[in-house]
Amino acid sequence: MSNFLLLFADMAVYFGLMLALFRARTVIGIGGLFCALGVMHLTTVYLSSSFFFVMPFGLGLSPGSLVLYAGCMSMLLLVYIREGLFAARQPVYGLLLGSFLLTIIAALLGFEHARFPFQRPADISFLNQMSALMLWGTLLLFIECAFIFRLFEWFMRRSGRRLWLSAWLTLAITCTFDQLLFFPALHFAFGVPLAVGLGGWIGKVLATGFYAALLVFYLRHVEGVPMRPGRAAMRFSEVSLRHDPVTGAFHRARFDQLALDLVSVSVSTGRPLTLMLVDVDPPSACGSQADRAGQVLRLVAQAISEGLRAGDYVVRFDGNALAVLAPGLPHQAAVQVASMMRQRIEGISELPDGIAPPDVAIGIATTPMDGESVASLLSAADNRVYAAKTLERGRVVGAFEA
Predict the structure, then answer these.
(1) Which of 65-69, 233-237, 277-281 has the lowest mean pLDDT?
(2) What is the pLDDT of residues 360-378, one digit of tens each?
(3) Neighbours of 190 (CB within 10 A)
(4) For the chain, how big is the Rg over CA atoms in Å?
């Protein structure tokens, strides 16, 4: 019973702190979570090869596989759900490159050399074993990330978008795959008994059910994501996109973190950041034809992108609205850029037959004059979009025209 309680306490503490780091991504960025996962990865490998709890029926169980590995995969799945595929794969790339580097350094340290006499000499042979085992485990993690997210989407479609069931089945299958390929290395290289392999697999399957339940609780009560099947907020295939499929611009899911990062840089460096909201009024000839309206919006996004710099970002913000984030662009210069942007939109020549160029209203806000937060920039730009719609003399409104 004490072993069960200790493992449960380890799971609660580990996953609770990881969820806190994930929640803090809007303040410190998601890099804090990725660094924590990297630090724990070596501990995961070490405990999996040397530290085991005695469980019922003569089985053994390592907290490295039960608590840390299953928890790591659960966190990567959470990152995929809320931040998309691009973000979820970033820590895996870092772990893989770091494991290669550790293996090379450990091998170089094994060469004959004169050591300074010290009463606690480093065990280089053990370091070589750990680095090789860590590299194998990270390669498996890399392979698992090639199918875990697709597997999750497949279960979401087949289960009627039941989040807990889909997450648990995905994690359980992934952990089974990992156990089948990682445990033989532990067994033959470190003599870990088969009872630990069987116990570890059972423990991972049960632990992933607990972690999946925590994910659902966190998403519902902390992130505020609706859990009913079919609700727009749970369309993971859309949230996971890096680019909007209609316009080719960045997906709306990328805007919040991107804008937050750019505002932070602007505040810390004193360089301006300009936000341009472009409200597109599709021609009435498009009517209810979504494909033609989408084609018009895509051409508008392309016209906007053609006149921007390499470091500027175009995001499909909401419906027929596009947002442009331009770091380092002063306000008055942004007004001129927006005016030329409007001229390019009016001159689009690839529109479908019978479709006139759309009307646009552009509102511009810049740090620090319009505030030093994403909310203040959005509020100022949105108010100026409204003002632009009411003006007869122009459709571009900045701070001095409002």
Answers:
(1) 233-237
(2) 889 999 999 999 888 899 9
(3) 12
(4) 26
Q: Which of 340-349's residues contact partners 24+ apart within 8 Å by CB, and which partners?
A: 340/307, 341/276, 341/278, 341/303, 341/304, 341/307, 342/395, 342/396, 344/303, 344/304, 344/306, 344/307, 345/300, 345/303, 345/304, 348/299, 348/300, 348/303
Tokens of 266: 């602007």
Closest CA to 20 of 221, 218, 255: 218
Q: Give backbone dihedrals phi and psi of 6, rounded to 5 degrees, phi first.
A: -65, -45
Of the pLDDT bands very low, low, confident and very high (cuts 50, 70, 90), residue 231 is very low
What is the C-alpha separation between 176 and 273, in angstroms, rounded? 48
**pTM summary value:** 0.61
Q: Say what the pLDDT of residue 359 is.
A: 84
Q: Which residue has the higher pLDDT, 136 or 297?
A: 136
Q: In this structure, what are the phi and psi dihedrals at residue 250, rounded to the nearest 5 degrees?
A: -60, 145
Distances (CA, A) of 277 to 54, 98, 384: 61, 41, 9
Residue 253 tokens, joined: 């899911």
